[in-house]
Amino acid sequence: MTSGRRTLASRVIGLVVGICRVWSLICFLGLFFLMVANVASRYLGLPSIIWSVDGTSFTMVWMILTGAVLVMAAGTHISLAGTDGIPDQGRPMSPLGAFIAFCSALALAIIGVSGAVFAVDAIAQKTFLLQLPRALWYAAIPVAAALMLVVLIARVTMSLRKEASGAPGETD
C-alpha cells in the first residue's frame, strides 16, 4: 500500500474508536443530565428520580469500559516505564513489545470469556426498580474486551506490516 492510503488495520482502529467515542459521549451525557435532573428535583423540593440509580450505574459502567478501549487505541492503556509497551503504529515491534502484546491478548481473551459467562449467568437477575436484566450491565465487560482485542490485533498487524515493508509508519 502507498503511504497516502490507510491500511485495513488503521481503518478498523478508526471505526472502533469512532464507535466508542460516540457511545462514551452518549453515556456521559446521559449520566450528566440524569444527575443534574435528580439534583434539581431535590433542590426544588420534588421527589428524587427513583430510577436514577439504575440509569447512572448503567451509563457509568458502559462509559468507563468503552473509555478503556479509547485509551488502549491511543496506545496509553498498557505500558511499562522504559519499554515500548503495546506496538505503536509508527514503530516496529520489539521482542518485549511482542511479549506484552501476547500477554495483553491472553488477558483480554480471559476477561472477555469470563465476562460473557458472568453476563449470561446474570440474565435472570433484575434491577430493583426498573426490573431490567443485570446482564445489560455485565455485557459491557466482554464487549469492551472484544473491542480492545480488535484494537490490539490491528496495532500488532500494523507494526508487523511496517517491519515487513521497511516503510515508515502511518499517521492518522
What structural class should be given to the helix and strand makeup?
mainly alpha
Distance between the termini: 15 Å
Can you tell me the overall shape?
Answer: elongated
**Helicity, in percent?**
55-70%
Q: List unreliable stretches of 5+ residues.
A: none
Average pLDDT score: 84
Count the domains.
Answer: 1
Instruction: Kindly state the number of beta strands.
Output: 0
Q: What would you report as the Rg, rounded to the nearest angstrom?
A: 20 Å
The share of residues in extended strands comes to under 5%
The helix/strand series, from N terminus to C terminus, equals HHHHH
Q: Total helix count?
A: 5
- Give the biggest beta sheet: none
What this model shows, in words?
The protein is mainly alpha-helical. It has one domain (8-165). Helix content is 67%, strand content 0%. It has helices at residues 8-43, 52-73, 95-121, 135-138, 140-165. The radius of gyration is 20 Å and the shape is elongated. The two termini are 15 Å apart. The mean pLDDT is 84.
Fill in the keyword field for this structure.
172 residues; elongated; single chain; mainly alpha
SSE layout and pairings?
Layout: H1 8-43, H2 52-73, H3 95-121, H4 135-138, H5 140-165
Short summary:
With 172 residues, this protein is an all-alpha fold. It is 67% helix and 0% strand. The protein has one domain (8-165).
